[in-house]
Request: fold
Amino acid sequence: MTEELIIAGFGGQGVLSMGKILCYSGIVQGQEVTWMPSYGPEMRGGTANVTVILSDERISSPIVGEFDTAIILNQQSMDKFEKMVKPGGVLVYDSNGITRHPVRKDINIYRVDAAEEAAKMDSTKTFNMIVLGGYLKIKPVVKMENVVAGIKKSLPERYHHLVPMNEKAIQRGTEIVKQIQKV
Reply:
């Protein structure tokens, strides 16, 4: 199994953290991983993306031209990365701030209304974990216990009291993900 994905959105949405948690989860699970971030100098509020590869075999290069999955969190990223999903691949997006929804007919499309759900949960900081939960429902590339271990590895110990809240957000994401198009 090899999963090549891109997570893209605004700085401050937890894009890089989501990728890091996936990588730590893969390491705990015994997978080979790469994490290659890209962000503008303004960081918070600017665009950010991270390429993540999880594999049962050695990874020859972290450079990817087409992705198995794209997780899209803003319109600029939709415009840039929708076309880079492999035919038959998966695009997961949060509709908040998206003015042009995905148009491709050769990919599987899912929506996770994570911004709306995070506001309902009164915890906007869990937005990225809700999205992660939706993705993991569609593609369970890592086991949930390993995701929890990945969160603990990613967060400084002084924030470990937030792990249950993040687990709850991931669970909620698995419940609210909606299939928009299946090929």
Residues 2-181 form a domain with the Pyruvate-ferredoxin Oxidoreductase; domain 3 fold (CATH 3.40.920.10). Residues 32 and 55 are 5 Å apart (CA to CA). The chain has six helices and seven strands. Helices lie at 15-28, 75-81, 114-120, 127-138, 144-154, 163-176.
